[in-house]
Structure formats: C-alpha cells, structure tokens
What we know:
The protein is an alpha/beta fold. It has helices at about 15-25, 50-60, 75-80, 95-105, 150-165, 180-190, 200, 205-215, and strands at about 5, 30-35, 65-70, 85-90, 110-115, 135, 170-175, 195. It has an eight-stranded parallel sheet with strand order 1-8-7-6-5-4-3-2. About 45% of the residues are buried. The structure holds D-xylitol-5-phosphate and zinc ion. The site of zinc ion has 6 residues, from strand 2.
Amino acid sequence: MKPLIAPSILSANFAHLAKDLEMINRSEADWVHIDVMDGVFVPNISFGFPVLKFVAELTDKPLDVHLMIVHPEKFIDEVKTLGAHTMNVHVEACAHLHRVVQQIREAGMKPAVTINPATPVALLKDIIHDVYMVLVMSVNPGFGGQAFIEHSVEKVSELRELIDQTGSGALIEVDGGVNLETGARLVAAGADVLVAGSAIFAHKDPEQMIRALKGL
Ligand code: DX5
Ligand code: ZN
C-alpha cells in the first residue's frame, strides 16, 4: 500500500503561502499537515486560527491539524470551523485523553493522538480502539528540519503490532525528519501516513518530491 503524504506547511514560505498551497493542490499529496504551536508545550510559535482561516479557504485537500499546545480541548470548535479532517492532540498535553478523543469525534472530526519521542507506545494500549490515527513524532516537536530519531522506526513496528493485535484499525502517521530514505524504512515498518516539511519545501521541485514520497 502506498503511503498517504501530508506536506507540512511549517516549512513553506509564509510570504508566498498561497503559491505553496496551490502547489500542494496540484500535487499528489493526500492531506495538508498544519502545525499549531503555542510557545508553551513546545519552544516555538507558528501560526494561529486567523491565518489558518485563509489556509483552509485556499486548500482543497483534507486538513490534518497537529496541535502542539497545552489544553488542545479548548480549541476543538476552532479546528472544526476550519473544516479539519483530522485533529491531532498530544498524549502529553491531555490529562483526560479519553474525554478529548470523544469530544473530537462528537465534533465530527477524526481523532488522532500524538506521542513524543520519549513517550512509549505502551501508553496507547487503552486508547487505541478509540482513535482514527496515532501520530509518532520522530523528532522533538517544535521545529522543522531536525534530524530523524532512529528509534522511531522500532516504535512504528511496535505500534503496528499493537494495532494488528488489537484489531483497532488505527492509521500510523510519522512526523519529523521524513525523507525518501527514512520514509522507505518507516513504510516498511508499517507507517501509513508520512508528514514531510523540509524534505518537500527545501527541494528544488517540491511537487516532484511529493510524487517520489508517494511512490515509496
Ligand atoms: C515539528 C512538526 C513537523 C515539522 C516537520 O514539530 O510537527 O510537522 O513540520 O518538519 P520536517 O519534515 O522538516 O522534519
Ligand atoms: Zn506536525
């Protein structure tokens, strides 16, 4: 099965965002990955809902919203208003993860839970039946262009085993340091969705790179 590809606009040129979004619309990308940061949960700030309103208007692919913020449950309505397909919340940011996952589903979006590099797959055992997707961070969240953490490949295999054993059907998405080389190993380990920022936007032909990732 070919992986789904979700270009992360964190690495796009924000002064020419419309141009980059048009490229994604034309491309073989499956989703658009949107990274919201608050400067508290992660040591960086990206963009907020006033900007994303225009991103949503210009995009014709499903939006995969990754919230790197504390209390993501406070923003379920805002993410829904964007028309998001998937809402990703960090396990580490939610004291009542089960409740948040149900609230996302009740709002009509697909709930996804995200784990940081130091968070074990085992922590997902009691939520795996309730989620549409698990997002495995293969860098510490907050910045694009960081080096891939090798252990992530093993984590994907472990998660694949948990999903297959439990019959949960959750998708596995991976985010951080994904390129053709790491992407191929992640797909072999069982990843369904690859997020890529710098590998796409730093490439001289981003549309071609999306096609290459899609071909993995
Ligand atoms: C990092 C973000 C990623 C980021 C990935 O915190 O969640 O989505 O854009 O960037 P690359 O692909 O450059 O590692
Ligand atoms: Zn992300």
